[in-house]
Specification:
The complex is a heterodimer of chains A (401) and B (68). Chain A is built from 16 helices and ten strands. In chain A, helix 11 packs antiparallel against helix 14. Chain B has 68 residues and is an alpha+beta fold. Helices cover 25% and strands 18% of the residues of chain B. Chain B is built from two helices and four strands, in the order E-H-E-E-H-E. In chain B, a hairpin with a 5-residue loop joins strand 2 and strand 3. The radius of gyration of chain B is 11 Å and the shape is globular. Classes of the chains: A alpha/beta (401), B alpha+beta (68). Chains A and B meet through helix 12 of A and loops of B.
């Protein structure tokens, strides 16, 4: 079981999402108080500036407004955490299920929805969630569903397809799920952490929510730390916090680089860690964004090209295999990167990686090829010295072993 | 009141790389090494391209094209 640790937001202040000492309803109510009447949830969420915590960071109020306008729709709490380096949704659902369920219930009411789903991809979450649901009485009962634990299972349209009884693969994006989703009805998909944040805003208000973080990125988010860290696990962090502080708490030492945003993210070089804040502004120059809060630390003893080639190969294997450029291009790109990692001296290899990266970008139903290409581009850019070294037949990490 | 210009949309989940579209719209489309259409630039349909695109939509054997 992954450790849950809360980064102090200010001296004496406990993390927001894990204030309950047990996952039961009475511990939840004891820690947070009763859920207030919905009120004008949409306005509240809009003023609080809650951003989606599923990876895209889309303003949550806009999504809710889209469904409210249509009525009779479906709300899906998305806990299908297919990213291997991410644990935050599982930890949240295990330790604070009632915050998530509060948020779901609020959004269902605000959006005039008629159906609610809670979706997970890890079977071990089912029993604890059934127990949590059994403790509650909802006007719109929550349907608990399990989907396949694949990287793209949590993609919005893939999730909707799975819930509609079709294969859980992404659809062409011409028809958006908020127009036609589960069972053909307007559907709103929210990450479970987003719903938990909404439940907090509903209780404590906009000013409280905005008391940490920045104006454009208010509040906290959950980060999953893994790799060369002494204390891996899920941490609650304020937006705009220093990456170095988070790394220090996780006992990271001095890394070669840090992958921010998961396998579709980008690398921040080790030398830049000290000056980077966890904000859009600071991460943008690296083509990185917080995404779903995945932070993977690359230690000094791992070859970055070998590591990246393995990630690229994994991503290629996770293609839904529906779209030609992704199905064909991702394995070819991963293989070319692997050849570079193996120190093959063909001078055409870096150019070939670049060519394939451009070729797969924007040519698929979902953003799996784009995210993979972005990761590969970051690898080639940040580790350009290592690429050059490998092309000459050597590797800095292997040489020092 | 201005309207968004018409654009060719490819449903990649249907596309099988048959290539009829690239033959009918060589100004807009090339094909990659696996036969799939590659946009040379934008897929905005101006003037006569609109007619050719409508033909391509009809001719695509897997109904992968739409104009939006």
């Amino acid at each position: 079981m992954t450790a849950v640790q809360t980064l102090p937001l200010e001296p004496g202040v406990v993390g927001r999402l894990f204030a309950a000492d047990r996952p039961t309803l009475d511990a939840h109510l004891s820690a947070y108080g009763a859920l207030p009447a919905p009120g004008n949830l949409l306005e509240l969420v809009d003023r609080a500036g809650v951003l989606g915590r599923g990876g895209a960071g889309f303003p949550s109020a806009r999504k809710i407004a889209g469904l409210t306008a249509r009525g009779g729709g479906v709300v899906v709490a998305n806990g299908a955490e297919g990213e291997p380096a991410s644990d935050k949704d599982a930890v949240l659902l295990t330790h604070a299920p009632h915050l998530v369920l509060d948020g779901l219930s609020l959004v269902v009411a605000a959006a005039w929805a008629k159906t609610a789903y809670l979706v997970v991809s890890r079977p071990t979450l089912l029993e604890p969630l059934r127990r949590a649901l059994a403790e509650r009485r909802e006007r719109v009962p929550v349907k608990l569903r399990l989907v396949e634990d694949r990287f793209i299972s949590g993609e919005e349209s893939a999730l909707v397809n799975a819930l509609t009884g079709r294969p859980g693969l992404p659809s062409d994006r011409l028809v958006r799920v908020y127009e036609r989703g589960v069972g053909g009805r307007p559907t709103l998909v929210h990450n479970v952490e987003t719903l938990a944040q909404i439940a907090l805003v509903s209780r404590f208000g906009t000013e409280w929510f905005r008391s940490v973080g920045s104006h454009d990125e208010p509040g906290t988010f959950l980060a999953t730390l893994s790799g060369a860290v002494g204390r891996p696990g899920v941490f609650e962090v304020a937006y705009g916090g220093r990456l170095a502080d988070l790394m220090g708490t996780a006992e990271a030492g001095s890394p070669q680089a840090v992958l921010i945003g998961g396998y579709h993210g980008a690398w921040v070089p080790g030398v830049d860690v000290d000056r980077v804040r966890l904000s859009r502004e600071d991460l943008a120059p690296f083509d990185a964004s917080i995404g779903a809060g995945v932070v993977f630390v690359l230690g000094q003893d791992r070859c970055p090209l070998e590591e990246s080639a393995q990630i690229a190969a994994y991503l290629a294997g996770e293609s839904a295999r529906q779209c030609g450029p992704c199905l064909n291009g991702l394995p070819r790109m991963a293989d070319t990167l692997a050849r570079l990692a193996r120190r093959e001296r063909d001078p055409r290899l870096p150019g070939e990686v670049e060519r394939l990266r451009r070729l797969v970008t924007g040519r698929g139903a979902c953003t799996h090829p784009d995210g993979t290409a972005r990761f590969v581009a970051s690898t080639m850019r940040v580790f350009a010295d290592e690429v050059a070294r490998h092309q000459r037949g050597s590797c800095r990490v292997s040489a020092s072993r | 009141m201005s309207r968004r210009p018409a654009e060719l949309h490819i449903d990649w989940t249907r596309c099988d790389g048959h290539g009829a579209c690239a033959e009918l719209l060589p100004e807009l489309l090339d094909r990659d090494e696996w036969g799939y259409p590659v946009a040379r630039g934008t897929l905005v349909l101006t003037g006569a391209l609109r007619d050719h695109a409508e033909h391509a939509v009809e001719v695509c054997p897997v109904l992968a094209l739409r104009i939006r």
